Amino acid sequence: MSDEKRLNVKLDAEKHELFRRACMRNEQTMTEAVLDFIERYIQDNPAPEKKTS
Predict the structure, then answer these.
(1) Cα(52)–Cα(15) distance, rounded to whole angstroms?
(2) Residue 35 half-sphere exposure, CB side, CA atoms within 13 Å?
(3) Which pLDDT tens digit goes with each residue over 1-53?
(4) How far does CA 21 lie from the centroid of its chain?
(5) Residue 15 to residue 49: CA distance in whole angstroms
(6) Dihedral sign, CA of 48, 8, 34, 18?
(7) 27 conformational bin, left if phi > 0, alpha if psi -120 to 50, beta if neither
């Protein structure tokens, strides 16, 4: 069993096409671009530590 979770994002058709073409221009899949964004976002916005009881 995988520890991965799926994230579904709805985009309007125009944004989807522009994003797809931008990724192609950068020789990156859309998934790679989103995962890169998430990694940078987490680094720039650390989550508060979990409280343990």
Answers:
(1) 41
(2) 8
(3) 689 999 999 999 999 999 999 999 999 999 999 999 999 999 999 988 888 76
(4) 16
(5) 35
(6) negative
(7) left
Contact 17, 30 (CB under 8 A): no
Nearest to 18 by CA among 37, 7, 33: 33
In the block, tokens 């916005």 appear at: 45
Residue ranges covered by each domain of the chain: 13-44
**Beta-carbon contacts of residue 11 (< 8 Å; ≥ 6 apart):** 19
Contact 48, 41 (CB under 8 A): no
Residue position matching structure tokens 């797809």: 20
